[in-house]
Amino acid sequence: MTTFPILFKGKRAGILIRSLTYGTTAAGKPRWHASTRELYWTHSPDAPTGIGFDVSAFDTAREALIAWGRSADQILDWEEGKPIQSIYSKTGVYQKEAS
User: Fold this and answer.
1) What digits encode the pLDDT tens for the residues 78-88?
2) Chain-centre distance of CA 54, in angstroms?
3) Dihedral sign (CA 7, 9, 11, 13)
4) What local confidence, expressed as pLDDT, does residue 97 receive?
5) Cα separation, 98 vs 75, whole angstroms
6) Could you tell me which of 3, 8, 59 has the C-alpha nearest to residue 34?
7) In this structure, what DSSP letter does residue 81 have?
8) Residue 46 burial by CB count (10 A; 0-12/13-18/19+): exposed, middle or buried?
9) In this structure, what DSSP letter does residue 82 have?
10) By C-alpha distance, which of 1, 45, 5, 40 is closest to 20?
11) Which of 55, 67, 68, 86 is 20 to 30 Å from 7 by CA-CA measure?
């Protein structure tokens, strides 16, 4: 397993991982996945299930980083009180209540 830090504003916000956890690419190389955990716990630990998931099973690092960015956007949007589309919400949207 090989890992690379993902930074946000100069601080570690997650990791990009290349491992055999999700099998191999057509070329027989380990696949890519990424974790949003550090960003999540720093910015939105109160977010409901369905926001900021880790991402997995990509053939390229670029694909994994694009998916990580979408999850990171959800985490940061939640923190800012923006509505987040989610299949886990009864209404289809989560939005943090103003405090």
Assistant:
1) 999 999 998 88
2) 4
3) negative
4) 82
5) 16
6) 3
7) T
8) exposed
9) -
10) 1
11) 86
Burial classification of residue 69, based on how many CB atoms lie within 10 Å of its CB (0-12 exposed, 13-18 middle, 19 or more buried): middle
User: pLDDT at position 68, please?
Assistant: 97
Q: Which two tokens stand for residue 89?
A: 């919400």
Write out residues in the chain with pLDDT < 50, as ranges: none
Q: Which of left, alpha, beta for 64 (phi over 0: left; psi -120 to 50: alpha)?
A: alpha
In this prediction the pTM is 0.90
DSSP state of 72: H
CB atoms < 10 A from the CB of 99, how many? Answer: 4
Domain boundary assignment for the chain: 2-94
| Concatenated DSSP letters of 22-59 | EEE-TTSPEEEEEE-HHHHHHH-TTPPTTSS--EEEES
**In the numeric block, which tokens belong to residue 63?**
């694909």
